[in-house]
Task: inverse folding
């Protein structure tokens, strides 16, 4: 349970604050449209959603904050779809691989789901095949899912097929649920947008993209940079060329703008990550904004 333990520790650190902060209520469901039935009242505890406070009952209680407890008529399924493959073995920052970030993202969403009693499942690229892990509420199964992501993202694995991953994801969940897509810093073309549109019709969708390490970053100026595909080292002299740095930055900016425009058209909540520093607070913020947008 080592991977899941690290994620849970990060979540605990991110939520250790006074009520009223940005990420309050992070233990509530990822799903905003769930049908709920009122059950009873209990005292407020740190991490509860302030929207669930019953202010009238709290006033009558003589000072204690009371929150409403509900019984869910059904559980939601959160399906994490990860475009695993060789590219995730690449670096996202000078100290972390994209795989490190992907595991943290999957673990964070999975933990938020299971802690609320929802199901979490995984769909990933296994070579040229797409595989799926049955949704579960058990921590041991979530840990096993994180292991699948790690095993399928080594440097000797073929690239994953993102289009096929989206196609299978759209047909795997029979009932409306939440799909969290974790993929590279992709450029969303017409075909990919079409596949995402189909997914949005069937499910709530969030997209997490993972940044590529900038080979011209001064922080790695004296370290070798080797391509995953050809294992060739990029010359340090070339990496110090300001024109290359400008070209890389321009390409990233344009790709991000196109992606943001496409995802906005589809009303898809998204997040772009270049490392695990601040990842959990960013995920929690995304979840809250996604819930309030629905």
Result:
């Amino acid at each position: 349970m080592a991977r899941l333990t690290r994620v849970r520790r990060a979540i605990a650190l991110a939520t250790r604050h006074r009520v009223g902060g940005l990420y309050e209520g992070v233990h509530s469901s990822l799903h905003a449209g769930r049908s709920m039935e009122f059950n009873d009242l209990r005292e407020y505890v740190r991490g509860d959603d302030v929207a669930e406070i019953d202010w009238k009952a709290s006033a009558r209680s003589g000072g204690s904050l009371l929150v409403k407890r509900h019984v869910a008529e059904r559980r939601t399924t959160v399906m994490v779809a990860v475009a695993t493959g060789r590219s995730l073995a690449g670096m996202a920052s000078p100290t972390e691989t994209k795989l490190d970030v992907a595991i943290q993202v999957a673990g964070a969403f999975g933990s938020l789901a299971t802690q609320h009693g929802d199901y979490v499942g995984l769909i990933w690229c296994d070579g040229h095949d797409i595989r799926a892990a049955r949704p579960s509420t058990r921590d041991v199964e979530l840990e096993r899912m994180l292991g699948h992501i790690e095993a399928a993202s080594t440097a000797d694995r073929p690239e994953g097929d993102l289009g096929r991953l989206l196609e299978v994801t759209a047909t795997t969940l029979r009932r409306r649920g939440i799909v969290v897509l974790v993929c590279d810093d992709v450029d969303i073309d017409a075909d990919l947008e079409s596949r995402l549109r189909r997914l949005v019709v069937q499910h709530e969708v969030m997209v997490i993209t993972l940044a590529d390490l900038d080979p011209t970053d001064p922080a790695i100026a004296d370290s070798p940079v080797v391509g995953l595909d050809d294992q060739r080292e990029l010359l340090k002299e070339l990496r110090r060329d300001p024109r290359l740095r400008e070209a890389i930055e321009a390409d990233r900016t344009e790709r991000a703008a196109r992606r943001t425009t496409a995802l906005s058209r589809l009303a898809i909540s998204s997040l772009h990550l270049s490392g695990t520093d601040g990842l959990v607070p960013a995920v929690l913020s995304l979840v809250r904004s996604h819930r309030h947008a629905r």
